[in-house]
């Protein structure tokens, strides 16, 4: 077929990304440029959410470790520094403090820029290792999830890189995958289903390395910061966590990608939203187990693991989409396959890759599209896995256990 730009998959992906930049949800790009809105104050230019990490670093350097986990004290610290607490709290485990401890030694803007650059460089490096070619760095750079991460000053690049690396690399580099998985405990909700798959596939080396890495991090945090932050994190944060999950703020719920958040946006009470989230989690786990034990190809299983994770968690915000974006890119370009997917599946993958924009558009009509995207992708992956199992004629569980995944997937 004669080449035209309209039959190039890269054109349609770039087109979708460009449309996203023109219509970011809630005018976030405009707020960032004008330093207006609820978070983008002239008091702390740059990523609005980064103020949490910056203030936490200041408190660490001053020795106020436990105060991080006291919502009232943390709020007062932000007010003293900026005049408003911006309704932000510290919700991360103590060993994450190692990642942000020194940043307050720099001016706010320099610290934000440095943190964003370093964390994206980490994501790009992991993406390059997994993908095998440098072109993935370009696609990660122009992805909507990247712009959101920078504008908000969030840790999404770091978490996304850890999740991608731990899942995609446990065949080729199990020790590195285990280390990355241990580090992923800085935001544990995105690794909650990984142990289940590791047990089903009997990947004992990855489990052992991940456990050792997490224990070392926790032990080091106790040695450096003492036990008080851990006690406060485990037993003293009920109020801060419940405030986030029980909020009725339409603006905040509009940024949620979970079943729970979307149900609340539609007006469901807490009990109904929790029930729907529980059903979503149950269905996601069943789909994940079925796919993991099937004869589906490896990328199908990985995509189902990521998709199920986002259906299980009740707290997923619109900047937490780096891993789904990477999976969508992998499947969209047909990595390690002879042919890319068909039109309908490709459209669904683009939908996932620009979900932050689509969700912002649907929220304007009163509903979130996060669960729609992830449920649709889970169903498509189930059908894909079933077809692949039929072609293979057997389960791949045996070859996976024996470390022969690549040979089995090539069949």
Key features of this structure:
transmembrane helix, 411 residues, single chain, transmembrane, cell membrane, GT87, mainly alpha, globular
Task: Briefly say what this structure is.
By secondary structure, the chain is an all-alpha fold.
Q: Got a strand count?
A: 0
Specify the biggest β-sheet: none
Number of separate domains: 1
Tally of individual helices: 24
The amount of beta strand, in percent, is under 5%
The rounded distance between the terminal residues' Cα atoms is 28 Å
- Ranges with pLDDT <50 over ≥5 residues? 395-411
Mean pLDDT: 85
Radius of gyration: 21 Å
Provide the succession of SSEs.
HHHHHHHHHHHHHHHHHHHHHHHH
Helix/strand/pairing category: mainly alpha
Q: Helix share of residues?
A: 55-70%
Shape: globular
Write up this protein:
The chain is mainly α and 411 residues long. The chain has one domain. It is 66% helix and 0% strand. The chain contains 24 helices and no strands. Helix 10 packs parallel to helix 12. The chain is globular and about 60 Å long. The C terminus is likely disordered. GO terms for molecular function: hexosyltransferase activity. This is DUF2029 domain-containing protein.
């Amino acid at each position: 077929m004669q080449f035209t730009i309209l039959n190039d998959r890269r054109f349609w992906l770039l087109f979708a990304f460009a449309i996203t930049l023109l219509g970011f949800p809630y005018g976030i790009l405009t707020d960032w440029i004008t330093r207006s809105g609820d978070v983008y104050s002239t008091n702390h230019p740059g990523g609005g959410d980064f103020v949490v990490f910056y203030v936490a670093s200041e408190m660490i350097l001053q020795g106020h470790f436990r105060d991080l986990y006291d919502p009232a004290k943390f709020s007062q610290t932000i007010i003293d520094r900026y005049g408003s607490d911006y309704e932000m709290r510290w919700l991360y485990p103590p060993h994450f403090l190692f990642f942000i401890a020194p940043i307050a030694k720099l001016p706010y803007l320099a610290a934000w820029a440095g943190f964003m650059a370093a964390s994206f460089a980490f994501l790009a490096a992991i993406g390059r290792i997994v993908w095998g070619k440098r072109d993935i760095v370009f696609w990660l750079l122009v992805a909507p999830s990247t712009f959101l991460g920078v504008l908000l000053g969030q840790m999404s690049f770091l978490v996304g890189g850890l999740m991608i690396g731990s899942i995609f690399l446990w065949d080729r580099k199990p020790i590195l995958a285990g280390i990355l998985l241990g580090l992923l405990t800085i935001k544990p909700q995105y690794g909650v289903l990984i142990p289940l798959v590791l047990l089903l596939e009997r990947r004992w080396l990855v489990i052992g390395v991940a456990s050792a890495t997490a224990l070392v991090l926790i032990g080091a945090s106790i040695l450096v910061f003492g036990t008080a932050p851990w006690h406060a994190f485990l037993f003293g944060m009920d109020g801060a966590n419940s405030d986030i999950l029980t909020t009725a703020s339409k603006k905040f719920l509009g940024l949620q990608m979970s079943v729970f958040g979307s149900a609340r946006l539609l007006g469901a009470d807490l009990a109904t939203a929790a029930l729907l989230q529980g059903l979503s989690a149950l269905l996601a786990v069943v789909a994940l187990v079925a796919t993991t034990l099937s004869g589906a190809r490896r990328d199908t299983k990985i995509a189902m693991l990521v998709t199920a994770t986002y259906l299980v968690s009740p707290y997923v915000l619109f900047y937490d989409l780096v891993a789904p974006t990477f999976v969508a890119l992998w499947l969209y370009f047909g990595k390690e396959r002879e042919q890319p997917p068909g039109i309908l599946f490709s459209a669904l993958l683009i939908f996932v890759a620009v979900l932050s924009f689509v969700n912002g558009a649907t929220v304007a009509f009163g509903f979130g599209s996060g669960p729609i995207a992830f449920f649709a992708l889970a169903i498509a992956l189930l059908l894909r896995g079933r077809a692949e199992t039929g072609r293979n004629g057997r389960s791949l569980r045996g070859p996976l256990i024996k470390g022969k995944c690549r040979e089995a997937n090539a069949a």
